[in-house]
């Protein structure tokens, strides 16, 4: 008890501050957990989904299922984990759309604003009638009127490059998937708020949802890329979908207006007529419509936030696959029929089997033995012939215990070390080549290796905040080495140039 009015006021102030902090912590905490059966789903059905995804999708990275607001299943394929961000690619677009919705609610812009009215100094000298008539809603619905997509790479995309592209179609009449249009939404939010999309969303979306370490790449001018470049965790993706499922409400507060949620996730434009294609079901404000009354944000190589309103379910997936459509097919075939109303009887045996399986998921390691069966002198440094990758030397070191293999690459004067383990992923940092929208950059990496034969070693390296894995096949013959490499997925060819080299004598190193 407090003995004075001043003490009482101080106690009340401290109490209110504590309560406010606890309210924030509750809002920013993890989603609640439950069992599948308590939310009307059998553990056996969830296990069947997990097994099908693991079997049919070449590189699953994570899965989280939320039913009635409760996480009923979650799993990560090692070396991926719940604490790590993952590149979202075009799933970033749905977050950018959300920033626009928030700015509209704050009265900073309207979706019927003409785009050029916000960027008069970046307009071409003689803007066409179609360009002048383009509105913010046309950016949101990918119906800007472009026939060809403007540049999208970080070193090229800008407001000026977007406005310089011809607009042959009347805006609003021609759907054309357009990542640069999403960049324009990001630039627009920055123009009217004075903050990047990443900074603008921090107190309005990221912090209320407990998205703790979002990372969003920018273009050469410091504008969030908008159409791609965001990294968050799997649970963050699930929370984002759950916010939309709840009509913009979170922990009793309205973060997004229900009107915006309805507009953003409904069919605003037609994008095709194939009833069996997940990319022909209509497009909203940077959200795809799905079959079965669902909608989603999605990104290249299988990054998904799938919202199923009729089933009160959200599914978050990260992966590194070229079979994005198959991911959705498996979900509809294996899981949708299992979503029942009410609860199901407890099934402890099935639940325990599911939990064990979810705890032991792994990206397939490199095949092979821990060491060659014959005396192959692989260790050493190899001088490589001139090659498009710019690799100058490659040093190979197999630990005497045959538990670790290290590759040290000198490339254009820079040295990168890739460490791999046999039968378990060894973590480190390195670089991965993955194409135009994922330039070579240092990433958290993990590697495994195995000897396919007495002369061939396979090294598999995974950049575990991205979809990308690189598999190197090293073939040794006397003092010669041949290096063949391929990415699991890429924007372009997955095959990398074959490299050859000659071992450098110790005296010449």
- Uncertain segments are 1-27
> What is the 3D form?
globular
Indicate the mean pLDDT: 92
Widest sheet: strand order? 15-14-13-12-21-20-19-18-17-16
At the fourth level of CATH, the homologous superfamily of the largest domain is DD-peptidase/beta-lactamase superfamily
Class per helix and strand makeup: alpha+beta
Domain module tally: 2
Radius of gyration: 26 Å
**Strand tally:** 21
State the CATH architecture of the largest domain.
3-Layer(aba) Sandwich
In CATH's first tier, which class of the largest domain applies? Alpha Beta
Cα distance spanning the termini: 78 Å
How large is the share of residues in beta strands? 15-25%
Characterize the largest beta sheet: strand count, sense, and whether it forms a barrel: 10 strands, antiparallel
Helix tally equals: 13
CATH topology of the largest domain: Beta-lactamase
Helix content class? 25-40%
């Amino acid at each position: 008890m407090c003995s004075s009015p001043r003490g009482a006021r101080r106690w009340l102030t401290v109490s209110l501050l504590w309560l406010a902090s606890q309210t924030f912590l509750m809002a920013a905490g993890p989603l609640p957990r439950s069992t599948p059966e308590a939310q009307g789903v059998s553990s056996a059905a969830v296990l069947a989904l997990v097994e099908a995804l693991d079997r049919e999708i070449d590189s699953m990275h994570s899965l989280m299922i939320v039913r009635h607001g409760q996480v009923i299943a979650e799993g990560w394929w090692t070396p991926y984990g719940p604490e790590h961000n993952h590149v979202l690619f075009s799933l970033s677009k749905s977050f950018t759309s959300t920033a626009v919705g928030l700015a509209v609610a704050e009265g900073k812009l309207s979706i019927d604003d003409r785009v050029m009215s916000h960027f008069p100094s970046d307009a071409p000298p003689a803007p066409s009638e179609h360009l002048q008539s383009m509105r913010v809603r046309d950016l949101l619905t990918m119906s800007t009127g472009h026939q060809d997509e403007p540049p999208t790479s970080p070193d090229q995309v800008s407001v000026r490059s977007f406005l310089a592209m011809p607009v042959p179609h009347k805006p609003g009449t021609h759907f054309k998937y357009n990542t640069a249009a999403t960049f324009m939404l990001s630039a627009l939010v920055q123009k009217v708020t004075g903050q990047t999309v990443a900074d603008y969303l921090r107190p309005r979306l990221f912090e209320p949802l407990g998205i703790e370490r979002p990372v969003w790449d920018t273009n050469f001018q410091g504008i969030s890329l908008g159409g791609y470049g965001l990294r968050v965790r799997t649970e963050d993706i699930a929370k984002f979908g759950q916010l939309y499922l709840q009509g913009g409400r979170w922990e009793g507060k309205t973060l997004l207006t229900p009107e915006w949620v309805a507009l953003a996730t409904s069919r605003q434009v037609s994008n095709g007529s194939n009833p069996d294609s997940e990319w022909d079901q209509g497009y909203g404000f940077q959200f795809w419509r799905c079959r079965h009354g669902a909608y989603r944000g999605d990104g290249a190589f299988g990054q998904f936030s799938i919202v199923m309103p009729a089933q009160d379910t959200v599914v978050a997936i990260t992966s590194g696959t070229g079979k994005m459509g198959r991911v959705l097919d498996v979900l509809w075939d294996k899981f949708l029929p299992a979503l029942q109303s009410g609860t199901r009887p407890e099934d402890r045996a099935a639940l325990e089997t599911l939990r064990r399986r979810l705890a032991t998921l792994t990206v397939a390691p490199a095949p092979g033995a821990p060491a060659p069966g014959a005396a192959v002198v692989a260790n050493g440094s190899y001088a490589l012939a001139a090659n498009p990758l710019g690799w100058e030397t490659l040093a190979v070191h197999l630990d005497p215990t045959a538990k670790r293999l290290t590759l040290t690459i000198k490339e254009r004067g820079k040295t990168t070390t890739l460490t791999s383990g046999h039968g378990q992923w060894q973590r480190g940092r390195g670089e991965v080549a993955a194409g135009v929208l994922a330039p070579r950059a240092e990433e958290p990496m993990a590697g495994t290796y195995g000897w396919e034969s007495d002369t061939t070693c396979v090294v598999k390296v995974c950049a575990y905040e991205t979809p990308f894995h690189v598999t190197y096949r090293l073939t040794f013959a006397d003092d010669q080495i041949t290096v063949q490499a391929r990415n699991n997925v890429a924007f372009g060819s997955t095959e990398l140039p074959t490299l050859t080299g000659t071992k450098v004598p110790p005296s010449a190193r």
